Amino acid sequence: MKQKTRVPESSAIEKVGDRLNIIGTIHVDPKSASFAREMILKIRPEVVALELDEGRMAALQNPERATGRGGGGSFFAMMLLERFAGEMTGSPPGQEMLRAAETAKAIGARIEFIDLPIGKTVGSLRKLPLKEKVRLGVDSLISLALLPFGGFNMSKLTEDLEEQLRVFRIRYPELSRMLLDVREEHMVARLKDIVYFTTGPVVAVVGYGHMKSLARSLSTIRTEPSYSTNVTWSVPTG
Question: Within 10 A of 111 (CB to CB), how many other CB atoms are there?
Fold first, then answer.
């Protein structure tokens, strides 16, 4: 059964079964980083699963070595928008992931990466239909132009999220399939494996837009480990 505890503004947590906790964050909100840390300290999980792959974690830890090469114009525009939004809010993208990883190490939890490798996602973006590439470029430029004047209201990002995602899917059908559906299928499979082969609590830190759909997909997950934690000894008496 799925239970949810709401947190003000830009973070939330979904509890799936008795061991899996999915934290939803806004990547560029400083409060999300603090919330992820607080929840990990409170739950003290055996595993902290991050919506990252090893390559993206390395880029977050060494941003001076990160480049936009190989991603094409659409990928560069998305990265530029994220970086700019991070500067406006004082929290570069991925800070909540770094904070979650630091906290996991502090309590001795294992860190697992559950997202598709960035190379696969970028390769898919190159195959976007021309119409969607043009829309993405225009929308990114408009967002960059308007952001300094309108500020960045984090609470608005999480209001009526289902409607926002519905509009996004209509405007970008192929991009939404690549960024949402394909990646979430991979994350669901990874989380199932993690839960099946552990016995303690698991915390997954993901973007707010993934939280509900991942919780729905995992709502029937068997949270008991796939192996027995009890050992029975047979001692001959004769």
Answer: 16
Cα dihedral across residues 173, 25, 126, 216: positive or negative: negative
| φ and ψ at residue 4, rounded to 5 degrees | -135, 135
Q: State both tokens at 191.
A: 């989380």
pLDDT per residue over 113-143, tens digit each?
Answer: 999 987 887 778 778 899 988 887 777 676 6
Q: pLDDT tens, 2-33?
A: 444 444 455 689 999 999 999 998 877 888 89
Which residues form the domain of 118? 2-217
The residue type at 118: I
pLDDT of residue 93: 67
Token code pair at residue 162: 């289902």
What phi-psi label fits residue 159: left (phi over 0), alpha (psi between -120 and 50 degrees) or beta?
beta
Domain count for the chain = 1
Asked whether residue 231 is domain-assigned, the answer is no
Tokens representing 215?
Answer: 């919780």
Dump pLDDT digits (tens) for 70-109: 444 445 555 555 555 555 555 566 889 999 999 999 999 9
Task: Please indicate, yes or no, if residue 237 is contained in any of the structural domains.
Answer: no
